[in-house]
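Hi everyone, sorry if this is the wrong subforum. Our group has a chain we'd like a structural model of before ordering constructs, and none of us has done structure prediction before. Sequence below.
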Amino acid sequence: MRRSLIVGLTGNIATGKSTVLAYLRSKGAHVIDADRLAHQAILPGGPAYTDVVAACGPEIVRDDGTIDRLMLGRRVFGDPQALHRLEQIVHPAVFALAQAELAATTALVVVVEAIKLLESGRLLTLCRGVWVVTADPEVQLRRLVDERNMSEADARQRMAAQPPQSEKIVRATRVITNNGSREELHAALDQAWNELLEAA
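Answer:
Right subforum, don't worry. Here is the predicted structure as tokens:
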């Protein structure tokens, strides 16, 4: 069986990662969503559930046994040590789930999408290249205000909370700039897709 071509995909808020992923899916790529796997890992019976409850306390568990993610977030996001502890539990579980999903797919191209792909380390080891989706700050701002109904102040705060795009760009094997029309984005993705297949 031919081995899958595995590409990592990341980018900051409102750069258009969801649009990119939808188009790559339409071309036959299998998408592994790290955020979805993180949610799966902390479900009852999931590989990180017991350790997360032990680390963060039984108060985060709802009556139905599921973890209250809002309460979990409040517990860790104001406490860097607690956040680090949570990541130490969840990231290995996400990596194991991603490996299992990779083993089960027959797709030629697999895209591993993670907001912290470059920071996570382990997921990055699965990828033969990293595609970073970028957009100009004024484009990001307009999308957050127009498409997500954020206030300009909230949008700017969300953008400022993320690492600069330049830090991702320097580690990219391909930069997908998404400032223009959907047709322009699709043309750039067609080129990236064809070059990926040619290099296989």
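For your construct planning: The chain has a mean pLDDT of 94. The first strand starts at residue 5 and ends at 11.
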